[in-house]
Amino acid sequence: MKTVIFLCSYLFIKGIACYILTKQENEALAQICGLYGREMGGQVPRIERKVLRGKNADIKDAPWSVAIKVAKLGNRHRHSICTGTLISPWHVLTARHCFMQETEDGLSWVNDDAPIDWRMCKKRDYFVPQKVLKQTQIVFETTCGTKKACKAYRIPLPKVKRRAKSIVLLDICPFQRWHFAPPDVAIIELAEEIKFNEKAHPVCLLNNETLVDEDSLIQLFGYGDDPSLGKGTKGRLRYELSRKEEHKDHGDRWVVTHSISKKNLACRGDSGAGSIVKINNRFTIHGVLSRGDPCESATLSSTDHLSSVAFLVDRICEYTGICQIEYSTNHTTKGFYDENSGKSQIFHPFLFLPIVFLFKILNFQ
């Protein structure tokens, strides 16, 4: 709890939002996360291939999938697209490099190519500035993430959209030059909560005590390109079935997968997609798609690389309140919260007065 209070105190002073789920909200989320298909009375997600030579999917197959668009500054019709995963009414996981790009001179923002101002770091993590937040849009309940894709596939335009209240880029500050530095993960806080339904439903987070066996089946849905279909394919939700590989060289921060059909790869626009495994009959996010071999390459032995969610569960808990719940003889919970840790408690103005004065005295930066 002390970690969360200090973190949100810092963000409050910096003018950055911080919505932390209460203990009750976290427990309620744990009751419904990842339950979909037959368990919730809906359709059963199909399991097939993705993206490159992949098969089209419907949002009801993967209601946790969201499209993330970052518009180019000065031209709202030009934008980059990524995929994200809904994990609470307020939070989405995606890849950090959806917002940062690597150049010869270091890292810059994807929306305007401006260099990164590293003064926005808070220890290991970076808080995306307003100029990028204003250009970022998160699209829910949709099979097509762009107007062009909707028109091409004759799918109704998406109506449920949200702006980002804040975006934190995990663990980039110690590196500062490599946009794929592990872990390649961003946490988006939405400006307005999402109501769950058959087209918008959160997955569970893989905890750090649950092992996913090598060769386990993994689903991955994304809004990326399919070069095998020609140009203009970005924005259509597609999917694949993969298997986890054992790669000891990558340690516990990375997950490596390969397509079962050996014909599929993640492509541009799939970055940030969640790799989904079914654990205890619940759809659970196992990794966040970071990088892989170029889609144009031969796919016989190609792999995709994902940032491990299990490695990050405590960090995600800090910023979201989505924390592991452990039931023992005294029914205790594990996390950085207690019964008073909701947003209303943290943002009470009188709570911050002594902290603000202390920070001003210390000239805290």
TrEMBL record:
Residues of the signal peptide: 1-18
InterPro entries xref list: DUF316, Peptidase_S1_PA, Peptidase_S1_PA_chymotrypsin, Peptidase_S1A, Trypsin_dom
Xref: Pfam families: DUF316 (PF03761)
GO MF entry, a single one: serine-type endopeptidase activity
Superkingdom as given in the UniProt entry: Eukaryota
PROSITE patterns linked: TRYPSIN_DOM (PS50240)
Record bears the keyword Cytoplasm: no
Transmembrane segments: none
Keywords: Signal
Boundaries of every Peptidase S1 domain copy: 51-321
Alphabetical list of Gene3D superfamilies matching this protein: Trypsin-like serine proteases
Single Gene Ontology BP annotation: proteolysis
Name of the featured protein: Peptidase S1 domain-containing protein
Organism: Caenorhabditis angaria
